[in-house]
Amino acid sequence: MSYQEIDKDIWESISERLKREIGQSAFENWLKPLKFIEISDKSAKFRSPTGFIGDWVNRNYGEKIVGAFQSDGFQIDRLEFMSIIQPRSDSKKTHTKVDFIKKTEPKRGLVESDSELPGSPLDKRFTFESFVVGKPNELAHAAARRVAESDSVSFNPLFLYGGVGLGKTHLMHAIAWKVRAQKKQSKILYLSAEQFMYRFVQALRFKDMHGFKQLFRSVDMLMVDDVQFIAGKESTQDEFFHTFNALIDQGKHIVISADRAPGEIDGLEERIKSRLAWGLVVDLHPTDYELRLGILQAKIETHSVYHPEVVISDGILEFLAHRISSNVRVLEGALTRLFAFASLVGKEIDMDMVQECLADILRVSDRKVTIEEIIRKVAEHYNLRMTDLMSARRSRSIARPRQVAMFLSKMLTSKSLPEIGRRFGGRDHTTVIHAVRKIEELKFVDAQLSEEVEILRRMLEA
Ligand code: ADP
Ligand code: MG
Questions:
Q1: Residue 345 and residue 339: Cα distance in Å, rounded?
Q2: One CATH from 3.40.50.1110, 3.30.450.20, 1.20.1330.10, 3.30.300.180 for 3-111
Q3: From CA 366, how far away is CA 373, in angstroms rounded?
């Protein structure tokens, strides 16, 4: 093993510990973007995507990080951050020396766990009130509310699935908070599938299967988050299946989440798949522009409570909603960073600040899509040949996909209208304008087309 590798391991274990201390979201925002380089001259050196992040980490977490290294026996007394983009001249540079100042960010991410039950903690911020509803998540939201609010058992189990950061955990916590507020005596056990397995393994090790079974079978509502985790783990699956059946038989509520539909989770036993699909299976679709904008607006209100002096324009919000389409967590992180930065330098958030502060995030979403790729993807999607889209044929089954492709070309590339026209078999730029308008119009009235366009856009931007 080289020194480099040893060093990497050090940071991995230290940052894991820090994650527990400062919370998942602060970790994702600030520590995850850092690349650990080495320890030398009593200093831990990192590469940071922007000067600002290094600066912020140093001010807010410097002491903790240095402490964590020291408690592992490393003789360091400071952190150093190297970045390509330097912080603005008006923010204080604290790169090579430790300059801890008082935390300006309020302590958030309050978590609480049920005092009686050994579940995972619930995040106070994850409530129905703070969940922004839009088209992509309205079904999941409605189902979650129904489960939380109805007196009798409905949709059992409720199976929520969707990609990372789309709000599965948020909705599960919201259900738990709501049920708890309504029925104080109700025993709700929320835990990650990983925790479930951990408890199971502990019970095996300490020969306390009886206690384990009793605990899980005594709850009124069981929620297991990220159940894909137990795929391929046979005995855990088995136990999960028995717990699941026992609870369902007793008419107790079960809520499950996963990153995929039950049928698509490889390594999950067939009988479990089919049992999971018994109740209601709903998915959270990738966010669309409107939802992202709505979420940003809602989050701004929270940030403004802590940073009333910071101003952010609608234009900037629209830019963020447009450009950061990966997941809500990243979107939130971007906003947190911007507010932190703006409150530090005491300025309105402008485009320069956005570019500088979010360089790493924007770079990732900055993938260039080519017209060629668009034509290929659209052709594949509609089962056509690429040459069909460039041909002169006007039958509707070809003309509509062609318009979709032109629309996407206009949206996703910086090519001019005449250039786009040329690439589609030498058409005139007015044809392209017509196509763009047509699709824009249809997106409002034709839900299916609107979804197809959205899916294609997502695939192309991925
Ligand atoms: P998942 O469990 O699906 O990976 P989370 O529930 O952890 O995603 O959501 C990631 C972050 O995004 C959380 O901070 C959550 O509050 C936020 N979030 C996701 N969807 C919404 C929404 N519709 N409204 C408000 N916040 C959301
Ligand atoms: Mg989750």
A1: 10
A2: 3.30.300.180
A3: 16
pLDDT at 115 over 50: no
Closest ligand 1 atom to the C-alpha of 134?
23
Q: Which ligand is nearest to the CA of 288?
A: 1
CATH topology of domain 289-366: Helicase, Ruva Protein; domain 3 (1.10.8)
CA of 323 to the centre of ligand 1 (A): 18
Has domain 135-283 been given CATH number 1.10.10.60? no
- Those residues with Cβ within 8 angstroms of residue 379's Cβ, 6 or more apart along the chain or in another chain: 385, 386, 388, 389, 401, 405
Q: Ligand 2 center to residue 33 CA distance, Å?
A: 20
298 Cα nearest atom in ligand 1:
25
Atom of ligand 1 nearest to the CA of 331: 12
The CATH homologous superfamily to which domain 371-461 belongs is: DnaA protein, C-terminal DNA-binding domain (1.10.1750.10)
Tell me the best of 327, 328, 336 to mutate to test the pocket of ligand 1, counting ligand atoms within 8 Å of each CB and taking the most: 328
Note the pTM of the prediction, 2 decimals.
0.67
Q: How far apart are CA 310 and CA 148, in angstroms?
A: 37
**Interval 202-255: pLDDT, tens:** 898 888 999 999 888 899 999 999 999 999 899 999 999 999 999 999 989 999
Beta bridge partners of 122: 112
